[in-house]
Predict the 3D structure of the following.
Amino acid sequence: MKTAARAPLRVPKTWLAETHSKVGPFVTRETYRLEDGSRRRWSSRRHRKGNERLTERTVFWQPQAIGWWIAVLFAIGSLLFALGVVPSYASAVGSVPDAWTFFVGSLFFTTAGYLQFVQAINAPHLDGTERRSFRLFAWEPDRIDFWACGIQSLGTLWFNWSTFAGTRSALDAEQAHKMIWRPDLLGSIAFIVASWLAWAEVCHGWFGWRPRDVSWWIVAANLGGSIAFLISAFAAYIDPHTGTIWRLPLANLGTFVGAIGFLTGAVLLIPEMRAASG
């Protein structure tokens, strides 16, 4: 049965929406029949990722594209998080520089997350009209990518709070519980919610198996990394009375695995740019 267009963007009036895929209230994919009888498919993630202006240079050097900066910044942040839990590094530099490694890494995550949000809200419409001006913020709650990118950005701010508090050596047990562990847990929860929304956006449902799709590998790596971050947050529970950490080795392992997951996803963002624009 033919349906009215429900995708969260404008399309030419002559395009007839025939089918669509939904996850909850969000349309993630829609197929249109055009005036000449041909068909065109819109997909949420591919649409916003495929509108970057790439040059003929290698895809590994595209500094004019927001997507390239998102990939590079996420990769640097992930490397710093992974480095921070390496025992030999922490022993070599000391506890305070090690704590600053996490905080600096979180700033790279925050910048990348915000650019990802900006990329989403500036995607053009299918009717050929561009956004009237480049936007730094917009409220578009009918879009799954708005929520995925926005919630992840919120999570990075909690990580900023937690990791900055970790650079302070004078915190007592209760302060460490409130200022380090709580925002770390909230940030991890935000990351897993955002990663699941990104997963659903690519899979166009609750689950999908698309090993030939680079976007699928990206969201799978990020979701796996977010699960590891959440396990790490639970394991890093700080007792507000004694200041002891519940399972420090597990917390460090979870952080390392989570960082590697996001590093993998960041690296794959580079070839995704070319694939989405093709």
